[in-house]
Protein: Asparaginase
Amino acid sequence: MRDRTRSPRLLLVYCGGTFGMHETGDGLAAQTDLGDVLSGLVDAWARRHGHPVDWRLAVPRSVIDSAEATHGTALEIADLIRERVAEGISGGAVQAVVVVHGTDTLAHSAAQAAFALADLAIPIVFTGAQRPIGIPGSDAERNFDDAFREALSGEEPGVRLVFGGAAMPACRAVKRSSEAFDAFIARRPAARPVDGVGSELAEALAACAHAPAPRVGMLTMVPGLPAEMLGAALDAFPEGLVLECYGSGTGPLVGPAHLETLRRARDSGTPVLAITRCEDGAVDLPRYAVGAAIAAAGVIGGHDLTAEAAIAKLRALRRAGLAGAALRSALDRNLVGEQQRSGSAPER
Ligand code: ASP
Structure:
């Protein structure tokens, strides 16, 4: 329980995105120095809510447009949060974190934080904006205000995304609109019960902070996908590949060249995780012979994970040192609310 006689201690992380962009003449670009603007927003929030906030600003090495994010960007943000939370504010523990981020990869970074920081028992709230702050009709102030309220009002820990008047678990969020103010939705209802990460994995997640980001990525299935493209994706992402599959986890992967490529990945230790492109339902590899064949070649069923959560979960677990059976078992568990079921037996 927070001591309400003291000002709440809040860490504010500014990563870039439209929220703080300005027009360059060649299009919108992220502003590096937004300290005064953010300070004004916090002061306004404190005035409106009648109590000061003891806050500190943290900024990653580069303030970017989401398009500039690399496979390491989301973990860099998570590591920065972990480091600053450990340092505390004014000699006291940080009670909440608000992260201002570009919307295009907001769900990726938020999902990454949900797994990489699963051992931190504080609210961490990601937000951004569709229109830059200061532009008439901008949604930046409202989203900032809502994120602050979400971060400071409840004691519920966990990583959430607040945008366009809605709050949702980060491990379920996807960007659904490039224009609307309600730009994000939570795909599929939150899973219950959550298995949690457990003490051993929590320790491993904390211990691997600042380790290099594993090269994990995704390939989307389309009819006629050449085996060479699958091979190239496995070369590009040797520490883990998510396959965004059709329906229950199938794809154009059953030719001899594709299956051989998958078997080679399994034998060389590259985990391959199948998720579904469908908005509803889950992966069930054994349902069809073609799914059973790719499972036999080593592909792991990814339940009903969103693409963002699948990449983030695999990346966080790889960085925590998990491989082989331990990795499969952790992928099967509902660690932070990212999937509706645990265990490998799907409901039929
Ligand atoms: N391109 C911007 C980004 O950095 C879009 C946004 O923030 O809304 O994600």
In short: The chain has a mean pLDDT of 94.
